[in-house]
Amino acid sequence: MAQIIDGKQVSASVKQEVKDEAAKLREEKGLKVGLAVVIVGNNPASRVYVNNKKKACEAVGFQSFEYALDEATTQEQLLDLVNVLNRDDRVNGILVQLPLPKHIDEKTVINAISPEKDVDAFHPVNVGKIMIGEYAFLPCTPAGVMRLIASTGTEIAGKQCVVIGRSNIVGKPMAMLLLHESGTVTVCHSKTKNLKEICLGADILVVAVGRANFVTGDMIKEGAVVIDVGMNRLDDGRLCGDVEFESAEKKASYITPVPGGVGPMTIAMLMKNTLTAAKQQNGLA
Ligand code: NAP
């Protein structure tokens, strides 16, 4: 039976590290770390994420600046705000909550954020840095996964790592981070043949597909570390991962639950990136 990887506990320890360092920056350098969060429109899920980010800022002693813009905001108005925030010294990190309304081009907005303040690590400059292993910021969800794997004491070097999913925000950067740690990485997607066979070879299996219970126990090698990134809302309102937990935990050595696994890590890593940004902008990192 697998040991459960407690994402809440690991994320609490990341947030405590950030809080301690932020307090030190305030006391020793008079520096208060600030994160600006911009939300456009009334998407209820986005609203929840933005509130959680604000709460996390408070918990670690950051200032948060929230900009809740009307659904009818034009792209130009949003770009103007991003430019103001790029120049605002109180703001170390800028996060524009996605998705944006359809009349706004997300790429144009992401590209307008100063790479030094791009704490989501979505700007092409930061994506490129991840590729060559010279990261300023790690993309939050994959960085959270790396921290969860580390919490198990599992060595990645030389292991067969399989990532299911190749999105720009999860699958691709996840594969790069595992590769930088010398894992032998296979990336699977909707056109992959023999998925079950490939999964059965995985010592470390990271699943980011967005389909409830997609990976079942018969696809998991005995003793594998299984990380479930998926967050799927079932008809009855329950949150469910991409891995069928009951069958998978019989095969895995370690497994993340949903909720309480990867989810809490993403915000913790966002706080860490914002702290890194503040240090870099002030010549302290
Ligand atoms: P996405 O952009 O929709 O990407 C899904 C990936 O899964 C795609 O690469 C797709 O392949 C692949 N896929 C779909 N069907 C497949 C199949 N039958 N076999 C193999 N691969 C298949 O999703 P995402 O943004 O990466 O997110 C994935 C999941 O993680 C979602 O449930 C999301 O809610 C969750 N998530 C959680 C967090 C967190 O903080 N916990 C953060 C981000 C995302 P193709 O490229 O070929 O289409």
Summed up:
By secondary structure, the protein is α/β, with parallel strands linked by helices.
Overview of the structural elements:
The structure is a single chain. This protein has 285 residues and is an alpha/beta fold. The chain has 2 domains: 29-114, Rossmann fold, CATH 3.40.50.10860; 140-263, Rossmann fold. Helices cover 42% and strands 15% of the residues. It contains 10 helices and 11 strands. The chain has helices at residues 7-29, 44-60, 75-87, 106-112, 124-132, 140-151, 171-180, 195-200, 245-248, 263-281, and strands at 3-4, 34-40, 63-69, 93-96, 160-164, 184-188, 204-207, 225-228, 232-233, 239-240, 254-255. The strands form 3 sheets. A 6-stranded parallel sheet has the order 1-11-8-7-5-6. Strand 5, helix 7 (171-180) and strand 6 (184-188) form a beta-alpha-beta unit. Helix 6 (140-151) packs across helix 7 (171-180). The model has no long low-confidence stretch (mean pLDDT 97). The structure holds NADP nicotinamide-adenine-dinucleotide phosphate. NADP nicotinamide-adenine-dinucleotide phosphate binds next to helix 10.
Describe the protein's topology:
Layout (H helix, E strand, L loop, with lengths): L2 E2 L2 H23 L4 E7 L3 H17 L2 E7 L5 H13 L5 E4 L9 H7 L11 H9 L7 H12 L8 E5 L6 H10 L3 E5 L6 H6 L3 E4 L17 E4 L3 E2 L5 E2 L4 H4 L5 E2 L7 H19 L4
Helix pairs in contact: 1-10, 6-7, 6-10
The structure holds NADP nicotinamide-adenine-dinucleotide phosphate.
